[in-house]
Specification:
Radius of gyration: 20 Å
Number of helices: 2
Number of strands: 21
Largest sheet: 4 strands, antiparallel
Distance between the termini: 38 Å
């Protein structure tokens, strides 16, 4: 904000896992003073910077869940942008804007996720979740399926039919697309949630600035009080986070990033890593 240059996207590819393991073993064999001069890197030496042709703010991104296609969807102030790779070159492929029935409403997209390899979930500032078939352009490929109770900060896929939406004013809910009636053109009514999360405590802080992640039926979210909450996506009940004295421990500031990691250890083969003011921490539940 306030910059004189258009927003840009930095793209860097991770190295092959086998090469990564070899680098790590070599790094461990070096002396400590040599490590400081040559830090371990898990990325390739090739990176790309592409700049938008429109003066937009980028809020969130999501990689297409298709290993054969290198595409990213990006939520921006003007809609959703697809960043695509073609012949080892990256570019802004196309932008999809969402026409609002309310003239005064904002078309800004604040959150994005893939429902499948082609359908995008677009969480908008006006509280709507728009579904877009990324193979199309124009209004023919879009539909409005959910009207949330507040501005949307996060939207994530739970499975092929369910999605979880988090916003301001302590509003978080899951919606099942199978039970949502076709939109009535003459109403702006809020969609009835499939499951609500009454314990969600993010009241005022724009949730884009705090972490959010989903793994199976587990939903994790940072709060404006500097805490971390974990919920059962099926029931909406809060799961206790922490062990012993660490239960309900504060982070000392917003959790900038939350990630579930699949592992051979931990509960149900999952661990939770939290990036906050103290660095990266591992949490239990």
């Amino acid at each position: 904000m306030g910059g004189s240059q258009p927003a840009c996207v930095h793209l860097t590819k991770l190295i092959d896992p086998e090469e990564c393991a070899a680098r790590y073993q070599s790094y461990r064999r070096t002396q400590s003073h040599e490590r400081d001069d040559d830090p371990l890197s898990y990325t390739s030496d090739v990176s790309t910077v592409i700049r938008s042709q429109i003066n937009a703010t980028f809020w969130a991104s999501s990689a297409r869940p298709d290993p054969t296609i290198s595409d990213f969807a990006m939520a921006t102030t003007y809609g959703t942008v697809i960043v695509a790779e073609s012949q080892s070159s990256w570019s802004f492929d196309r932008i999809q804007t969402f026409k609002n029935e309310d003239f005064d409403a904002s078309s800004e997209v604040l959150a994005v996720d893939w429902l499948d390899t082609n359908i995008l979930l677009n969480g908008c500032r006006d509280g709507t979740v728009r579904l877009w078939d990324a193979r199309t352009c124009g209004p023919s490929g879009t539909s409005w399926r959910v009207k949330h109770q507040s501005c949307i900060n996060h939207v994530r896929r739970l499975d092929a039919n369910r999605l979880v939406v988090a916003g301001l004013e302590r509003r978080m809910a899951t919606y099942d697309l199978r039970y949502i009636r076709p939109k009535d053109e003459f109403t702006n009514a809020v969609t009835r949630p499939y499951v609500e999360f009454p314990g969600y405590r993010n009241k005022e802080l724009n949730g884009i600035a705090v972490g959010f992640d989903v793994c199976g039926d587990l939903v994790a979210g940072g709060t404006d009080e500097g805490g971390l909450q974990l919920f059962d996506g099926m029931s909406g009940r809060e799961v206790m986070v922490g062990v012993g004295r660490d239960i309900r421990k504060k982070l000392g500031g917003p959790a900038r990033c939350l990630r579930f990691v699949e592992t051979d250890e931990g509960r149900d083969g999952k661990k939770m890593f939290v990036a906050g003011v103290r660095g990266v921490e591992e949490w239990a539940w």
